[in-house]
Write a structure and sequence with these properties.
The chain has two domains: 225 residues, Rossmann fold, CATH 3.40.50; 134 residues. By secondary structure, it is of the alpha+beta class. Helix content is 25%, strand content 31%. The chain is built from ten helices and 19 strands. InterPro entries: Methyltran_FxLD (IPR027573), PCMT (IPR000682), SAM-dependent_MTases_sf (IPR029063). Its EC number is 2.1.1.77.
Length: 408
């Protein structure tokens, strides 16, 4: 059958189109990863989604939601899966641990490492592992070992002699308890949370610690079990708004809810950004110097016009027990495609928080915006790590993440 006779919305054509897009975007960079994406049928792991949606290069497929409607399991966007697999530098015969299952990514890994490799995929949810086992068997990847359990504890039981050549984490985690399972030259790809910020790191050994290479802005379904995120997450305005704070005093949800609809302090910074211009270093800089740093979220399906955040997800905020201020935005007058940052403050301390966040934005623009971004290292929790000259240490149960900014 010629290609012209294959329907344009057939899985084979959609898969080929997805691969071409990933290659053009630079997410696929090696023949091995390209071959895996070209062969593994993503639609077979997402039967609840139409094939066109399953093969959308930039879209996540949600496979399960919790009682609050938030995703508890998903298949990551192909661009992010490709980027993480490239970062892992897998080879034939490699031994790989995947934290967070679903089946499709494990099949990609199995395709790359070949029959002589080892793929162990772990998930805490029996709904997920049952699906993964079934879909892997149906698509010819039954050799993948699917393990039900909390990865913080059960992964040790399945480590091969000499350790795993790669650990690939596909859920958002707050800590990294798997470093001891890694082979000396292995690589860990981890979407790590710190101060409510998420970055996907490639961790490689450097003596007694790990270097965190190529931090990539990302978002993942949060992990469950012993390693779940320690965030406080008050939900306001009937679900239209959510705040996230990792540390600090217990938050008063009722007071914060009242603050949202009460008097506000609005300030404009004069700092502008283009439509496609990144400003994620702003998050890192504020988190470096302010313990009240958190995130403001708007549910796009419940937009009542009450708030105007600079972004719906991962919008910088300063949060206290009963007050908050968040980053907002407006089109800059007299320009095309540029936007001005502002701040909206709410609650008893809203004015003080708004002025503080305003100053953070202006300081970032004046002194930090054009500097190289910080470097990251990951150390054991009991290691004696000197504080960076400019930066911060994020202390966790098993590890401590050091963020260090260059002096110039």
């Amino acid at each position: 059958m010629t290609t012209d006779l294959v329907p344009s919305d057939s899985p084979d054509r959609l898969r080929a189109s997805m691969v071409s897009e990933l290659r053009r975007g630079g997410w696929i960079r090696s023949p091995a990863v390209e071959s895996a994406f070209a062969k593994v049928p993503r639609d077979r792991f997402a039967p609840e989604s139409p094939p066109r949606a399953a093969y959308a290069a930039n879209d996540v497929v949600i496979t399960k939601r919790g009682p609050n409607g938030r995703a508890t399991s998903s298949i990551s966007a192909p661009w992010l899966q490709a980027d993480m697999l490239e970062a892992a530098e897998l080879r034939l015969g490699a031994k790989v641990l995947e934290i967070g299952s679903g089946g499709y990514n494990a099949a990609l890994i199995a395709e790359i490492v070949g029959p002589g490799g080892l793929v162990v995929t772990v998930d805490i949810d029996p709904f997920v592992t049952e699906r993964a086992s079934r879909f892997l068997a149906q698509t010819g990847y039954g050799r993948v070992k699917v393990v039900l359990g909390d990865a913080e504890h059960v992964a040790d039981q399945h480590a091969p002699d000499g350790g795993f050549d790669a650990v690939i984490v596909t859920v958002g985690v707050w800590d990294v308890p798997w470093g001891h399972l890694l082979a000396p030259d292995g690589r860990m790809i981890v979407p790590l949370r710190f101060s409510t910020i998420s970055r996907s790191f490639t961790f490689v050994r450097d003596g007694g610690h790990f270097l965190g290479l190529d931090p990539e802005v990302c978002g993942f379904v949060p992990c469950q079990g012993a390693g779940k995120l320690p965030d406080q997450e008050p939900v306001l305005a009937g679900g239209a708004v959510r705040l996230t704070l990792e540390t600090g005093p217990a938050l008063d949800t009722d007071a914060l809810d009242r603050a949202l609809t009460g008097d506000r302090t609005e300030l404009w910074t004069g700092v502008t950004v283009g439509g496609e211009e990144p400003f994620d270093s702003l998050h890192l800089r504020i988190a470096t110097v302010d313990d009240r740093f958190g995130m403001f979220w708007q549910d796009p399906d419940r937009d009542t016009g009450l708030v105007q955040p600079a972004m719906r997800w991962y919008c910088p905020a300063l949060i206290t027990r009963d007050s908050f201020a968040y980053l907002t935005i407006r089109r800059q007058r007299g320009t095309e495609g540029r936007w001005e940052f502002g701040v909206s403050g709410h609650g008893r301390d809203g004015a003080e928080l708004a002025h503080r966040l305003h100053d953070h934005v202006c300081t970032w623009d004046r002194a930090w915006r054009d500097r190289p971004e910080p470097t990251f290292t990951l150390h054991p929790a009991d290691a004696d790590v000197p504080a960076p000259a400019i930066g911060r240490i994020f202390r966790k149960r098993h590890t401590q993440l050091v963020m260090s900014w260059p002096d110039t």
